[in-house]
Amino acid sequence: MAKEELILSRRLFVNQLYDLYCPLLTEKQREAWELHEFSDLSLSETAEKLGASRQAVHDLISRSREKLEELETLLGFHRREEGLEEEIRSLRAALEERRGRTGTNSRPEEDRDVRRTS
User: Fold this and answer.
1) pTM for this one?
2) Contact 21/32 with Cβ under 8 angstroms?
3) Which of 2, 11, 26, 80 has its CA 20 to 30 A from that of 112?
4) Taken in order 70, 76, 77, 83, is the CA torsion positive or negative?
5) How far apart (Å, rounded) are the C-alpha atoms in residues 87 and 91?
6) Helix (H) or strand (E) holding 111
7) SS3 string of 53-96?
8) What is the pLDDT of residues 22-68, one digit of tens each?
C-alpha cells in the first residue's frame, strides 16, 4: 500500500472512531476536531476560531486522537462493527451462492423472510 493510501486509511479509521466515541470527548475537543477535520481548517485557522494558540489546538486534537484510540482499545466497538459487517458480507455471499445453485431469482420480500429466519 502506498504511503498516501496508508495516511488516508488511517485518517478514515480515526474519523470512524470519532463517529463512535465523540460524545466521550470534551466540548472543546469536539469543536477543535470538527473544525480541523470536517471543516478542513488549518491549525492556525482553527486556533483563530477558538480564540486559542495554534499549539493549544494541536494539543487538543492530539489528545482527542489518543483518547479515541484508547476508547477503541478498551471498548472495541469499531472492531465489533467491522466483524459484524464481515459476517453480513459472508452471509450475503452464501445466499447468492445458494440462489445460483438452485437457479432461483428471489424477490426482495423473500430476502426479508430469509433474514427473519436466520
Assistant:
1) 0.70
2) no
3) 80
4) positive
5) 6
6) helix 108-117
7) CHHHHHHHHHHHHHHHHHHHHHHCHHHHHHHHHHHHHHHHHHHH
8) 999 999 999 999 999 999 999 999 999 999 999 999 999 999 999 99
* Amino acid in the structure at residue 20: L
Amino acid at 72: E
- As given in the structure block, the three cell numbers for residue 104 are 432461483
Rounded Cα–Cα distance for residues 7 and 13 (Å): 10
- Compute how many other C-beta atoms are within 10 angstroms of the C-beta atom of residue 60: 24
3-state secondary structure of 41: coil
First to last CA, the chain: 37
